[in-house]
Amino acid sequence: MQELHDAPLAPLTTFRLGGPATRLVTATTDDEVIAVVRQADADGTPLLLIGGGSNLVVGDKGFDGTALVIATKGVTLDGTHLELAAGEVWTDAVARTVEAGLAGIECLAGIPGSAGATPIQNVGAYGQEVSSTITEVVAYDRTTGETVVLANEECAFSYRHSRFKADPERYVVLRVRFDLEDAGGLSGPVKYAETARALGVEQGDRVPLAAARETVLGLRAGKGMVLDPEDHDTWSAGSFFTNPILTTAEFTAFRTRARQLLGPDTEPPAYPAGEGHTKTSAAWLIDKAGFTKGYGDGPARISTKHTLALTNRGDATTEDLLALAREVVAGVHRTFGITLTNEPVTVGVTL
Fold first, then answer.
1. Where does residue 206 rank: exposed (0-12), middle (13-18), buried (19+ CB within 10 A)?
2. CA-based diameter of the chain, in Å?
3. On the CB side of 321, how many CA atoms lie within 13 Å of its CA?
C-alpha cells in the first residue's frame, strides 16, 4: 500500500484536471481498501474513491481528505461466470471475455475506467448495459462495517443509475460478478441501430464477437471516446451529460417546441424508456441549441468529434470546464426547456 501527501489528482483523471489531495493512498487488496475506508470513517476524514478516473471532475482546489485509489487485481473465469476485482481495467476485461468466446459485454469495449465503477453508473453503450449481465456485487458497507453481497435485483439498476450511485457514501465496490453467454463465438443480438449499420446486419442479428468489439471500438474512436494521450478530444469524461428521460407530456411539449424552432417536419430522437417515458438525445439537444463540434474559444471546448464530450485542450482548469458546461446547460434549457444532467461525479465543485 502506497501513501503520498499533497499529491496531485489531475494525472489520475482522464480530464487531467483538479488540485491535490491532502493524502493519497493506493490499495492493491480488498483488505487494504477496507482498512483505509475504516480508518477514514473512524477519524471522520473525508474520503474520495478513485478507480480509472474516467468519471471524475475534481475542483481546482483539490480534495481535503483521503483519496483512495482502488488498484486491486483479479480475474476469475469459470464457464460463463466472470468475477472481476474492482481495480481491473474494464477494457482489458472486455477483451478477455471476447477472446474466451463469451457474449454480453462485447459492445462495452473501449469504455475507460475500472470494473468496480461499472455497476455504480450502470455503464452502458451501443445497446448493452452491465446490469443485464451482473449477477452480484461484493461491497464493503460503511454503515454496518461489513462486507456484503448484493444480488442484481438488490442493486436497483436503472438508466445510468444504481443503489450505489443513489447512496454514494455507503458502499465501496470490491468485486463484480457476471454471467455471460456462450453463443458459439457469436455476440449477443445487435440492438443498436448504428452498430448494426456499421456491421452491415439487421438489428437483432448476431455477429462474431471480435467483429462486434472491433466495430464498437471503431465507432467510439471516431467520436473521440477511446483514450489517446495525443488526442485532446479524449481528454474528457466521455459523455458529459446523460440522455434526458421525459414523461409523455414533457416529450410532447418538447417536440412541439422543436418543430416551432427547426421546422414542422422535425422529429427529435425518441427511444422507449419505460411506460409513460421517452428518452431523447443529449447530443442532439446540444447541437441544435447551437453548440456544435469544436464549440468554444478557450482551453475547454466541446470535442471536435462529438458534441456530448467536453474536453480539456491541454491547459484548462476545472473552472474553465465548468463554465463551458454551465453555458451548454443554460443554452439547451433556454432553447428547448430541458435541463441536462451531468454524468461525471463532481468533487469539491458543483455545476
1. middle
2. 62
3. 30
CA–CA distance, 53 with 114 (Å, rounded to integer):
8
Q: Residue 73 in 3-state DSSP?
A: coil
Contact call for residues 178 and 171 (beta carbons, < 8 A):
no
Residue from 49, 140, 130, 121 nearest 87 by CA: 49
The kind and range of the H/E element at 101 are none
Give catalytic residues, as residue numbers.
160, 239, 343
Q: How many residues does the chain have?
A: 351
* Cell, residue 76: 476469475
| Cell numbers linked to 51 | 478507480
Ramachandran area for residue 223 (φ above 0: left; ψ -120 to 50: alpha; else beta) = alpha
Supply 155's cell numbers: 442493486
User: Within 13 A of 247's CA, how many CA atoms are on the CB side?
Assistant: 2
Neighbours of 229 (CB within 10 A): 8
Q: Which residues of 75-84 are buried (b: 16+ CB within 10 A; e: fewer)?
A: eebeebebbb
- Which residues are CB-neighbours of 174 under 8 A, at least 6 positions away? 30, 33, 34, 72, 85, 86, 116, 138, 139, 140, 147
End-to-end CA distance of the chain: 34
* Grid coordinates belonging to 186: 457469436
Q: What percent of the chain has pLDDT over 70?
A: 100
User: What values do phi and psi take at 121, rounded to 5?
Assistant: -90, -5
**pLDDT, tens only, 54-91:** 999 999 999 999 999 999 999 999 999 999 999 999 99
- How high is the mean pLDDT of the chain? 97
**Identity of the residue numbered 12:** L
Distance CA 20, CA 226 (A): 26
Distance separating alpha carbons of residues 184 and 113, to the nearest angstrom: 29
The residues that bridge with 316 in the sheet, in sequence order, are none
